[in-house]
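Here is the promised in-class demo. Please do not try to memorize the tokens; focus on the logic of going from shape to residues.
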């Protein structure tokens, strides 16, 4: 039993299961806005399942293909695969299993979700290779997370509209913005390895400036998405609260001091989606009252 618990903890750490908090709230926001309230429980369960399996597949695949690079980076050398805590075969099996369960979850939602599931997987898995040839990799990661609200809207409404597309753009810019911050700590390593990132190509100062700009744009996308979906003032108050969190995030880091990147990325940034989800749910509840 202890061995099983240790292995489970190692797997959850490898895929950073706790970071599901980044995409899942936006999937639920998309579902709530599409339904104009609470979607059917069955639909909600399969949306959550699809998000969990999609993220597990993406993270396990990323760790698998990046294992040789991670082994050369002092910051990542202790990860499960480089350290030998888990085998490449296990990671590959987890990828296959998670992809299959994601497709099953999509099939349980509706035909369009099933039809588009291979496209979603192509983006989710393809991201892992982008840092090898383009510094636009931050935006590809953003698109991977941005598919969550669009996919949830499809699951509930059976099609797309302006609000989920705007939410997708908002999540894409939000994710690219915080990934630029996170990538600053690997700037020197990326340069040595010939990897592509904005900090490696343009420097840390410009990366942080661009991150701020992207977060301004993402707030605008969230605001307009709510307006186009007919959300009320409580939702938009939530957008304002998320904007405050982003300001705090950017005040924690500067080109001369990156020591608080972990706090900015994991502590403050993780509350953005949760905060907006809470205000969205409250807005819909108040509108029905």
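The designed amino acids, position by position:
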């Amino acid at each position: 039993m202890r061995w099983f618990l240790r292995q489970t903890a190692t797997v959850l750490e490898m895929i950073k299961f706790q970071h599901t908090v980044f995409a899942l709230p936006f999937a639920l926001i998309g579902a709530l806005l599409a339904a104009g309230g609470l979607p059917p429980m069955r639909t909600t369960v399969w949306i959550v399942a699809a998000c969990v399996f999609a993220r597990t597949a993406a993270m396990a695949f990323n760790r698998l293909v990046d294992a040789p690079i991670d082994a050369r980076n002092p910051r990542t050398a202790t990860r499960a695969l480089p350290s030998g805590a888990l085998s490449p075969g296990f990671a590959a099996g987890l990828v296959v299993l998670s992809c299959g369960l994601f497709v099953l979850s999509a099939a349980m939602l509706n035909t369009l979700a099933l039809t588009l599931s291979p496209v979603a997987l192509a983006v989710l898995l393809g991201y892992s290779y982008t840092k090898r040839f383009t510094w636009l990799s931050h935006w590809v990661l953003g698109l991977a997370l941005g598919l969550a609200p669009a996919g949830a809207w499809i699951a509930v409404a059976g099609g797309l509209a302006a609000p989920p597309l705007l939410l997708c753009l908002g999540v894409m810019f939000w994710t690219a913005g915080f990934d630029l911050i996170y990538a600053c700590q690997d700037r020197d390593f990326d340069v040595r390895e010939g990897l592509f990132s904005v900090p490696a190509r343009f420097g840390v100062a410009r990366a942080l400036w661009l991150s701020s700009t992207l977060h301004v744009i993402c707030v605008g996308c969230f605001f307009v998405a709510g307006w186009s979906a007919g959300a009320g003032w409580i939702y938009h108050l939530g957008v304002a609260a998320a904007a405050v969190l982003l300001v705090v995030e950017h005040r924690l880091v500067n080109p001369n001091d990156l020591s608080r990147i972990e706090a900015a990325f994991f502590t403050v940034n993780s509350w953005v989606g949760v905060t907006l989800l809470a205000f969205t749910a409250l807005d819909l509840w108040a509108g029905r009252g």
